[in-house]
């Protein structure tokens, strides 16, 4: 990726989709991560899991395809692909918790440099908390990717040394895909794999946590991302 | 052995004030709206309701909450774009919320039906939802002790039943139905079709009749008639 500008949501989604290995079982969280589905290609043979009891979820349903009994975790009507299967909620979460899903992609309020995730509750007293499947997904999938804009609306970085929002899970995130950079959470620290419209030094100023420069020349984008990052 | 009932009102008769009632469904998919509205008409109050959500729009569980019949709700995801009845009661302090991570909710219900005393799960470890609960490191990983959730009644929706009460579901409307059926003292199922005993392929029965006490046919449930909500 040799982009010189920060990425839009679809471009981040395309990056995530590109990094999902062929044949993976994947759960896409509600919100921004659902866009990843639009960038998966059939040749990848990725099978999507939805927490409300389905493997082999197809694209969003429209018009006469809409079936009230067939929805995704965001309660949006979807379709089924050949080879799809249905199961009850306890099985769906056993599948997750049991480590059978290869990857889940989640949104986040904050991610810490060691991979703690906060994405379920702002902690504000007037906010009604709602956790859904976030804690099970973050802990259960073999790898958890976060997809988010790096900066909050007020300009503060959402990658932090320590989360101030209520936690979803401890040390569960392995990669963070953002509009400004892709980060790997590795034993050697928080590694910047690639940057978009910025550089590692600027990111250091922005985030204020130690960063390892893992960027490399354009045209060699996959190397740093191979294998499990943490 | 299940008995066939003439109407939703007859099928929910005898649910007393203060009962714990599991209600199937994920959003509106699989929500037994006609049974819930019969429960509303029967007048029971001070109910403890177990459901993934806390009502959508103005029908079904939302109506039961809006009428002030629910003292406490045990759920994973109360806050939705159309959960205004719950939101209002919660902000007024008129309903108690026990928030449970979705996989823990499903497994606690499953555990009740399976006769499990309690179980250790990694989900929620290190988060606010684990506060006050017993914790233990197993294989170097933090786990939280969670207890079963039982109910006096389960109200569920399925696609078809035979006259014995064997059930099959449709697509993602299966969700909590099978595990709630096993976790309640009395399980009431509304189905779109009732076939003669032997009319369902035994290989395809999802909920065996041993878990089902009352069956009522609702030919055109409201969940098929309305536009899907978010």
Task: Describe the structure in your own words.
The complex is a heterodimer of chains A (230) and B (230). In chain A, 15% of the residues lie in helices and 26% in strands. With 230 residues, chain A is of the alpha/beta class. Chain A has a single domain (9-224), classed as Glutaconate Coenzyme A-transferase, CATH 3.40.1080. In chain A, strands 4-3-2-1-5-8-10-11-12-13 form a 10-stranded mixed beta sheet. Chain B is of the alpha/beta class and 230 residues long. Chain B has 7 helices and 12 strands. In chain B, helix 2 (33-42) links the parallel strand 2 and strand 3 (47-50). Chain B is globular. The termini of chain B are far apart. The chains are: A alpha/beta (230), B alpha/beta (230).
List the main descriptive attributes of the protein structure presented here.
heterodimer, A: about 230 residues, alpha/beta, Glutaconate Coenzyme A-transferase, 10-stranded mixed β-sheet, 13 strands, about 15% helix, globular, disordered C terminus, B: about 230 residues, 9-stranded mixed β-sheet, 3-stranded antiparallel β-sheet, 12 strands, about 25% helix, about 30% strand
């Amino acid at each position: 990726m040799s982009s010189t500008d920060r990425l839009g949501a679809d471009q981040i989604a395309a990056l995530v989709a590109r990094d999902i290995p062929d044949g993976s079982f994947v759960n896409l969280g509600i919100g921004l991560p659902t866009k990843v589905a639009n960038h998966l290609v059939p040749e990848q043979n990725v099978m999507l899991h939805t927490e409300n009891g389905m493997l082999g979820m197809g694209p969003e349903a429209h018009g006469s395809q809409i079936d009230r009994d067939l929805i995704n975790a965001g309660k949006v009507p979807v379709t089924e692909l050949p080879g799809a299967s249905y199961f009850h909620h306890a099985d769906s979460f056993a599948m997750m918790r049991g480590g059978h899903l290869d990857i889940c992609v989640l949104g986040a309020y904050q991610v810490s440099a060691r991979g703690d995730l906060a994405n379920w509750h702002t902690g504000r007293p007037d906010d009604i908390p709602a956790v859904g499947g976030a804690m099970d997904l973050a802990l259960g999938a073999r790898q958890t990717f976060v997809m988010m804009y790096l900066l909050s609306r007020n300009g503060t970085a959402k990658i932090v040394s320590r989360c101030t929002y209520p936690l979803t899970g401890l040390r569960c995130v392995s990669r963070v895909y953002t509009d400004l950079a892709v980060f790997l959470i590795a034993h050697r620290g928080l590694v910047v794999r690639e940057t978009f419209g910025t550089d590692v030094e600027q990111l250091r100023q922005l985030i204020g946590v130690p960063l390892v420069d893992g960027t490399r020349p354009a045209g060699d984008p996959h190397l740093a991302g191979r294998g499990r990052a943490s | 052995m299940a008995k066939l009932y003439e109407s939703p009102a007859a099928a929910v008769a005898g649910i007393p004030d203060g009962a714990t009632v599991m209600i199937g469904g994920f959003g509106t998919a699989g929500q037994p709206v006609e049974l819930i509205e019969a429960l509303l008409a029967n007048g029971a109050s001070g109910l403890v309701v177990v459901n993934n959500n806390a009502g959508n729009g103005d029908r079904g569980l939302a109506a039961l909450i809006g009428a002030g019949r629910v003292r406490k709700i045990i759920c994973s995801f109360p806050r939705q774009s159309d959960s205004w009845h719950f939101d209002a009661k919660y902000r007024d302090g008129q309903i108690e919320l026990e928030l449970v991570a979705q996989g823990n909710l499903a497994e606690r219900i499953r555990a009740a039906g399976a006769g499990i005393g309690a179980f250790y799960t990694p989900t929620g470890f290190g988060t606010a939802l684990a506060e006050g609960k017993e914790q233990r490191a197993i294989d170097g990983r933090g786990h939280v002790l969670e207890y079963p959730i039982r109910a006096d009644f389960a109200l569920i929706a399925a696609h078809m039943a035979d006259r014995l009460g064997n059930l099959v579901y449709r697509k993602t409307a299966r969700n909590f139905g099978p595990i709630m059926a096993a976790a309640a003292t009395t399980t009431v199922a509304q189905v779109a079709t009732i076939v003669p005993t032997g009319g369902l392929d035994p290989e395809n029965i999802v909920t065996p009749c041993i878990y089902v006490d009352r069956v009522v046919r609702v030919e055109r449930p409201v969940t098929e008639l309305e536009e899907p909500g978010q």
